[in-house]
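Q: Joint fold for the lines below.
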Amino acid sequence: MCQDSLFQCRWLPQLHLGLFRASLCLLLVLTSCKQPQHPTAEVLVQSHCGSCHLMPEPSLLDRTTWVQSTLPEMGYRLGIYTDTSRASIVKPLVDFGVDPEPFYPSRAVLTVDDWRSIIEYYGDRAPETLTVSNQSVSVGLDGFEVRESLLRFSPPYTTDIQIYDGYNAYSIGNYASESKLVLLAESDQLMFEFDLEGAPTDTEIDGSTFIVSVAGPGPEPTAGRLGAVYGVFGPDQNPIVLVDDLYRPVDIEVGDLNGDGLADLIICEYGHYEGYLSWHQNLGDGSYKRNVLLTAPGAIAAKAADLNGDGLLDIVVLMAQGDEGVDVYLNEGDGVFSRERVLRFSPVYGSTDLGLYDFNADGLLDILYTNGDNADSSPIIKPYHGVRIFLAESLTSYEEAYFYPMPGAMAAQAGDLNEDGDLDIVAISYFPDYEEREQSVVLLENESTQTMAFNPSTFEDSFRGRWLAMDLGDIDGDKDLDIVLGSNIGFGPKGDRTNLYDRWAEESISAVILENSLRSN
Ligand SMILES: [Ca+2]
Ligand SMILES: [Ca+2]
Ligand SMILES: [Ca+2]
Ligand SMILES: [Ca+2]
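A: Joint structure:
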């Protein structure tokens, strides 16, 4: 297995710096129009971006990372190619017929001296290292039996895990040597499997139909429109293309958005340089009509829910690239949605997952959020990675009420795991600090919603997989909530601090099941 190609093929949508670069580019263009006499870096970086949320504070990365890695990559976006050739940078776009000029300008938009002063600005202000507060996690999960799924792909490249409530079943989506979705009974017996032409990223069920999004041949970023959404209408059926020509779809949501009784599709086309958030109206004849909600890359998670109780499904979307944040799309009826940005994060945050839950039981859905994508130019342990709860104050106003630091946090879901009447959280990390602590899976037991106090614990040997995917649900029909975790070792050496690769490859654990023993059947 080629580590280099693995790194190139990293699944994670890592380019959240992309739009930041573009915005800095725009800023610099505007600035240079206003101040033709070589503005200082401070002017460039600060003065003209008073209301700009995209300007990352120098404190968010250490000096070495800024100067040696992140800023040079930003330079390409400004037309500065001091350590490489433009031709090599733009090849992945040109190969797909994409005009690279808007992304990597052929002429520098600022002088090299100005660029150097920006680098100095960050270098002077950035810390030597970032300080991460150590969390105390108790080991040993009370109330859960831990077992490894008997179904193992070798190597395990799990990109999707789902539990099917009411069916006593779960599925594992894998790519690379075997690209398929397997549906398993709770006892791990194979129920059926579908071959897929690429990496499955999400599975939804609509009646008896499986709907599966496939990113492309692999899950890695690409300028091409190689993704598709498939429907599988029965165990003996081949997957049928429902929607194709997609920019790397990483998440789908099923719901009747226009109230005609037919389940429509929301598709997060994360893409790379280009992408979309779109909804696809089910026309009832097996075809879908595409409606674009946003033309931009970076949509990573979408949830449909009726936020205001008017009977229409609204959409909440996490954008994870450049202008990172959460958008609410209120459904105005007749297929019309009004968009409002309700949360905004720094472009180095690395947003990864979003869920909607009413943590404080006030009737308003709150936001569960994770950030921890470290597959970018700054693969360092970051103190602002972790799990957050934003309580809803209104439909479009959310306040951070809880933060659990968790480097590399990749996904989280909430549910009342111990059935004491409040919502607990399970979170996984794809980029944990294995050298320091065992924090690749954490169960945060809700001790008090009023004070937002959660008690973290994990299971023995929780780093027996590298957790990219998870789901919470009742896998065995006894009505308590179980957990399934999916391992994916398709990430190469850059920033990999694990030293666990050989073990993972040898043991080939695709999934671990945490079976809740609160009840038993
Ligand atoms: Ca519909
Ligand atoms: Ca609430
Ligand atoms: Ca609970
Ligand atoms: Ca159960």
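Q: Anything notable?
A: Residues 221 and 364 are 35 Å apart (CA to CA). The two ends are 43 Å apart (CA to CA).
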